[in-house]
Amino acid sequence: MQQFQRRDKPAARESNQLVFGTRAVMEAIDSGKEIESLFVQRGLSGPLFAEFKAMVKEYDISYQQVPIEKLNRITRKNHQGIIAVISPITYHNIEELLPAIYEKGETPLLLMLDGVTDVRNMGAIARTAECAGVHAIIVPKKGSAEINPDAIKTSAGALYKIPVCRHDSLGKVGRYLIESGIQLVVSTEKTQDSIYDVDYAMPSCIIMGAEDVGVSDDLIRISDKLAKIPMFGEIESLNVSVSAAVVIYEAIRQRNLPSA
Fold it and tell me: By mean pLDDT, which of 131-135, 179-183, 217-221, 235-239 is the weakest?
């Protein structure tokens, strides 16, 4: 019988671009690298660490304090208690992107993801959004799926093409969009109104939430429309990536109706 040599699979994070060591991470930040995740060992102190903390505060970069065991699982090399995961994409700012959409004479169609943490769902949603011509995806800095090789692969490369905007507060972004003439349409079961009752021909931002908790109350309170996908089977729920596709393509269908 033929013998096969076993190949140990590398840890998931090993496929990401890692920068580790205090000085190396600081140099990466200072050079403008997009930081996807930043892990810091609990209990670090000293003048260099104080300099590091001042830098991440200046650049508005959040980090997770973790035990050294987690850092050692990410890499066995000398990380000095600090590891950064470099994002494979460049993030955008919706306040800079939206005026450019209007200047082109286009009607904005945006997608906001509130608490979608599964990387494969993120990738699948991005693939649909890019295919449909959605102008941008908006995500929070905390509580969102990491844009890593799995997300890129699932998106079939769409995450390299569609602008992804990352912001501290989705509530603030939502209020900015309203002031900019964008209607907020929340996909939720907490309504009797259907997605087919919404006029997506006007500037719109579709908001999808996590499968377990849905869209946050803060966003629901300021939204213009609540809309649900009609369900006729016994399960009465869809994966968030499928739900996003249904709503996005209803918007596209309406926008491509022949003029009366």
Answer: 235-239
- Check if the beta carbon of residue 187 is closer than 8 Å to that of residue 223: no
Whether 153 contacts 123, CB under 8 Å: yes
Task: Tell me the C-alpha distance between 138 and 142, whole Å.
Answer: 12
Give the side-chain half-sphere CA count within 13 A for 77.
Answer: 9
Query: What's the CA gap between 43 and 124, in Å, rounded?
Result: 39
Confidence band for 7, pLDDT divided at 50, 70 and 90: very low
Closest CA to 36 of 124, 119, 96: 119
The three-state secondary structure class of 208 is strand
Show Cβ contacts of residue 207 under 8 Å, excluding neighbours closer than 6 positions.
111, 112, 114, 174, 184, 185, 186, 187, 215, 219, 223
> Residue 184: enclosing H or E segment and its boundaries?
strand 183-187
Chain-centre distance for alpha carbon 68 = 27
Nearest Cα neighbor of 245 from 134, 116, 118 is 134
Give exposure, 54-74, as e/b (b: 16+ Cβ within 10 Å).
eebeeeeeebeebeeeebeeb
Q: Are strands 17-20 and 82-86 parallel, antiparallel or unpaired?
A: antiparallel
CA distance 81 to 83: 7
Three-class DSSP labels, 89-115 = CCCECHHHHHHHHHHCCCCCEEEEEEC
Residue 220: what residue type? I
